[in-house]
Amino acid sequence: MSRLGIVINLDTCRDHHSCMLACKREKNSFLGSHYIETFTAMSDKFPNPNTYFIPILCQHCSNPSCVPACPKGVFTVRKDGIVAVGNTEVCKSCKDKPCVKACPYGAIDYDPVTGMIGKCDMCASLIDQGKTPACVNECLTNSLLFGDLDDPESTVSQLIASRSEDIHQLKPETGNKPNVYYILSKKEWKDCKDLYSPAWHNK
Amino acid sequence: MEDVKLKSTEDRPNTKVVHSGCRSCHLNCDCLVTVEDGRVEKIEGDPNGFGKVCARGIAAKQFVYSPTRLRYPLKRAGKRGEGKWERISWEQAVKEIAGKVYKMSQKYGPETFVMPGRTGRHDMGWVAHRIARTIGTPNNYYGPIQICYLSNFHSQIQFGSYLCQGAGAGGSALCVSFGSESAYAHPVVGGMQVAAKEQGVRTAGLDPVAGATYSGSSNEDESELTKTKMIALDPVAGPHAMNADEWLPIRPGTDLAYCMYVIRHLIKNNQYNSEFVKAWTNAPFLIREDSGNLLLESDVVKGGSEKRYMFWDENSNSLKYWDAQEVMWEGGASGKAHYDKLVELCDNGQASFDPSPSILPENVSPALKGSYKVRLSYGYEISCKPAFQQLAENVEEWTPEKTAEVTGVPADQIVRTADMIGTMHPVEIFQGYQYMSTNASQFFNACEVIKMITANIDNPGGHIMAQFYPVTPAYFPGEGDIGYSDGLSLEQKRKRLGYYEHRIGCGYIFDEWKKWQPLRPDNQDGLLIFPDVHCVLNAAETGRPYPVHGIIAISSNWLMHDPATARWMNLINDESKIELHVVTDVVMTPTAELADYVLPAVTWLERNYLGFGIGAGTPFKSFYNKAIDPIFEAKHDYEFGAMLAKELEKLDPKYNHGLLNPGTSMFWKGKYGKLWAYDTIDEERASWCEEFLERPYDECLAEGKVYPQKYDIAPDSYRYLISGKFPTDTGKCNLFSTLHQMAGYPPLPVYTEPAESPISRPDLAKDYPLVLTTGKRQAGFFHSEFRQLPWMREMTPVPEVFVNPKTAAEYNCKHGDWVWVESPGTDGRAPMNKVMGKLSTRFMTRPGLVSYAQHGWWRPEKSVQEDLHGAFEWNCESLLQTHDSTPETGTMGLRSQLCTIYKCSAEDIQKYHPEITREQLESFMPMSKEEVK
After folding, report:
1. Which of residues 145-184 of A touch B (CB under 8 A)?
2. What is the pTM of this model?
3. Residue B207 has what pLDDT?
4. Is the minimum CB–CB distance between A28 and chain B shorter than 8 Å?
5. How far is B792 from chain A (nearest CA, A)?
6. Which CATH architecture has domain A4-196?
């Protein structure tokens, strides 16, 4: 078994946005959607602000909310753990888009023009060719790492094991068991509180 | 990764992958462009280069096919800015422009033409300089150059050549940065900074922004990696400052005060390198108290030399000299013969590693402190003191308490960080690329002094000199040579607007400086020969000292980047003032909308490129390929210059013939010839390749990185030990700036308060109590560019106005509010002295401050009828005035003026509908294959 995941080192994320544009280049998602988006965790402390950046993408949960929420079976969990996106043409006739509301991370984008949805699939087609996801590849500070979380020898597993004190996950209380992990040691972890992104969303 | 790429191209015969150099900012990152059926499809990093490209590079395919591209030459058919155009041919356009240039030059003199600064395309600088030279005007490059990169090339004053800036990525033990935000300005450099800070890098003499990739004493041993500590002075804690080891939330424009304290701290605590200071700077040279000049042998001995600088020897308690011409200390060996040999080698592209025999004799100890009585040759006795003593006196008043009061940084942090500078090595003083306050020149001088007295000169991890004459072989001309810009007569050069007002920046000292050494910088714009924007405005408005009637803008969206927008609009709307306005550009900008002729230019994807670094001379030349042919009728700016010269030549042969370079330059010195011998830039480049690399151009393009046939790998650090002197008049690092002294400015740093601050202008501060700073960047843009790229604009849709949350609350505003930022209406700012912006507390700022990000905002989604594509809604330049400026260079206080803020009303939002829409973004999507001819 394998369980693919991404570890993001927030200590070195500098809001360069290369991940966001690598994603655009690879997935060409509709205007106003960002399958990965760098948020700023804001702080009002002066002169030692607890500000840091956090890229948020589909967490590829082990217990995903979107899969049961979708009445059309658009999402499937692959053997490698990727929450894949099927044919989204069927979403056009789906009235309430329950997946969008179900996702606790806001990772599913709804396109009001086409009526379809979109989200990160960890660049499954690249992975199937033996490559790494576009965002991981393009990060200018190598803050994104990709690998098999079930393989104790993988870099991501070893990082998670060796830096357990600094490892965080988004909204653990949901029980979604994300396969995206964050490393933050230099600032205080705020989970999803006080997050802001200047990017434009077509909602 | 590469294998996959090659395979995929084999599968698709109409697909090719082209090695190119991205020009979405200065960095020129190596990239691979996938071209399918003649169309750019994908832009990626080149694994043989940095391996990655930033967001702007990826989005460049939306730039090349943007529906806002200019397609054909256009001639104005209505009033300026009305948006009415007639399509004409290139031939007709250039012929008509040449006719007007000729007639107006006859009537007003060629200096009536001014050329605004620019930064959007490669080759723009020297091509524009050559166009200015062709027309005969000394007025090229006002505005941006007075702030942009000046902080870097100002170092030529002290060292005779540029100092490279490692930008925190050069493997220094410590990097002190001033207002630098690489994460958005130069993201790839930002990535390198993180690597330097977190993982450590090999200590090297690199200048990432200049694209210089040669290393200093690079070490293969991984254990030699240096982790760089970061001190960031910045009123806003953006990505760099918020992650620095020390964030100093300094009051804008007072960085100089901080430097004054640092110098004092280093001297008081004996944290300066007295060995280097004595041997390699002019700090021990005596200053005459009566004249303020350096004491020369000719002052004290009848018939004495003017090249001998006097100092006090503590060992013998007597006057001694350093002879700059003989490269010799009194009582020591002469380095002249060795130096002359180096000059000979340099001319032949060869190098030597042999040290100079000229060293400071062991029994001589130049005094740095004290005061000495000296008898002049004609009998009078005067007092003299070492320049270092004068420096110590200048900084004495800068106690931690006073510095804290002026800068707004706590005293303990000031002391702590100064101590880091004094105790760590090597240290980079990264003064950034833009310093925009009215004490700019003295700030640069102070930075150079800190570098000198801590011996961080030409050392890896410190500040490598780009070129070091005569140690660096000069095998290829730089932009400073090929622009032929110094070929004008002295009489004509003296007409440059600002020449006598700003004598360091605008050319007065240039003719003195250029005698020091014959190497010209790789960056044409780095020569200190720019006109001053305020003098240009005044001349155009008043006709004094002569009228300005023509603007020729090469790659310049000047309406968006020059301050005092209201004054410019008055001028451009008056055809009796500005009779001719020509613009070449890639897209239809607000500036282009105001032109009489608009000419379509190429993007970086449509032309080959031969790399010139910004400051550094690399031991190889880099070549980059075009991905596609120019679309529509776009041409390289070079072709415009060549066409214009040839049309002018028909009217008078002098226009395309003359002295190429004066005798002081190394290339084509004293040679007369055609200024434009070719029609295209590729033909001219081919001639350089044959002449200087002895290789065909095609081969160079295919190879990418080309070393000259005969070239010695030269030493790349500590080169003063080889030459025995620095390439300056004194042969030393000019801690005492002889050029400042000559031009009538303080030769050693002194502090002045920013000209428009709450302290200097309490009258204005009553109604405008907040400090306005500009120049903070946003992700995805390069100055005024890329607002119409859908991928950039959805990422950064509106300007962010950074304000401290408490300050915002005092003004009844909060994060996310649309606010008006208003500056005083004085000095010609009214009635355009207010712009909108979205208040943001995303980044912490010092209280009482408004940081408008980013500059040059316009709204391509709006029509020309809507105020020139929304040119005045969000452009912070219209808040700024040019009246107050740095005496030496004309640098204005763009980062330190006054303003206030207040919330926009619901009617304002209704009127300006500031949020972008999906339809607007969709309308900017690339033109289809069918639409592009």
Report:
1. none
2. 0.96
3. 56
4. no
5. 9
6. 2-Layer Sandwich (3.30)
